[in-house]
Amino acid sequence: MAQVPQTFLDALAVRTWCGLALGALGRAREEIDAINVYPVADGDTGTNLYLTLESAATAVEAVFAGYETGAGKPSLADAVHAMAHGALIGARGNSGTILAQLLRGMAQVLAEGGEAAHIDGAGLRLALRRAADSAWQAVAHPVEGTVLTVASAAAEAAEEAEGDCGTVARAAYEGALTALAATPGQLPVLGRAGVVDAGGRGLVAVLGALVEAFTGEAVREAPAAPESLAATEESGQAPNTISGGHARVESMRDADLCAEGSENGGPAYEVIYLLEAGDAAVARLRERLDALGDSLVVVGGDGLWNVHVHVDDAGAAVEAGVEAGRPYRIRITHFGLGDVHTGGERPPRERAQRAVVAVVPGEGLAGLYTEAGATTVLARPGEPPASGELVQAVRRAHAREVVLLPNDAELRHTAAAAAEQARAEGIRVALIPTRSAVQGIAALAVHAPDRRFDEDVVQMTAAAGATRYAELVVAERQSWTTAGICQAGDVLGLIDGDVAVIGPDVTATARTVLDRMLQAGGELVTLVVGDGAPETVAEQLEARVRESYLAVDTVVYRGGRQGTLLLIGVE
Q1: Is the entire prediction scored with pTM above 0.85?
Q2: Which of 15, 87, 268, 544 lies at 20 to 30 Å from 214 by C-alpha?
Q3: DSSP 206-260
């Protein structure tokens, strides 16, 4: 059924826009990844934009779902606040962080009407201007020829347009398209590669979706090569992305753009985290991070910020966040030799033969897995990673063979979908159905990259399968369990996924769980202690093992904010 044209922006239009933009970025993701040469050639701009928009769209859908169970419908302010917040907490990479600020800038204007049902073309013009201005202010050292330039051009074109929201959106899209074609002449690294700016290309896709949300008509999609854009503008015809931009992308992928990083070298780590802090503390944080590295982008407000920076000292960047407030969801990516910031003189990075990609529930375990050589994906409490995030991690591992450890029974289907997509890209992937991070630790302990792939997978699978696992959590409400009725606040001990013990005390419950697990025997107990557990719980459990199970060893790790009080593994 054809979409009915809409002349104003309301909550439903925001929902439609998010869905269409997610689809547009999904179709363009691989092409955008391939032309990603600035600020670092890490080949993930399209994926980062997609994951950021996916988080925004999910938040908007949650608002609508909440109203479905009751009376009324969400207001425009409800929808845009959800969109901006979802993008902020889900922002990935330099480009995703800037996109989050663009959406936040728009939301600030669109929500000014309070309970107003919708805004017209004039309101949309103001929103696009605020978006561009706020994005420029969020970047420590703005550069022309990037997504910032494209955003400004869109705002300027919108300001010249008169009419309803569809007219304004189309003007913004056309202005962005023209600016995108000019980016190779503004930024030398783009000109040498013969591509347009990847972040700007993504923003054009998002603006094209905005046009479609109002008019019901799909726009011409922007190709990757600037000459194709120019030809498109002269002829007024939709570009042939198969013979034009997409063909250029394929040839560039073959040549491995990862060797094209910045001219003068640069930092080795990308650090991203959410931060709860006040404005004054964030202003001081900006100054400190600016002195530590480059590509600094700090977006957000009202006490919640998303911080992105490239540095050589990742620890110092995190410590700066600790001094400013409370950082969490910390992601540290090591660009690696030949990955980015390497300049054109060095050869492309060779693919490793084998790598391990693991989902981990807390920062502490992420560090442990990383030290063991694994590429990690952090699973936040209540926010499991999407399949696209797992595929991105597999690509980041840059190996011919990958062992995937989901470490959560509920991620089985997500991990299977990611593995299938990676296989379609020519990567040999084996999925080991680990149901807990302690099973992943056991699998990683026997991992031997010099073995044949199949043999290595068999050994890792056997080690994981031989590890019983348990976790301690606090009940949120009264409910029936396999161990009886629990009350809100009770401590639940789950063994192999089922509630086995209900108790009022963390340490006593943990001791009972451990005794039950060791009744079947065991040689090694692994304890992963979360931030919410009592400080003495590990010490008391270690003492219990020493006194009652003489042939059993114990190892303790700090899991950080992992969503559970305690993880226990028995091998």
Answers
A1: no
A2: 87
A3: HHHHHHHHHHS-PPPPP-SSHHHHHHHHHH-SPP-TTTTHHHHHHHHHHH-GGGG
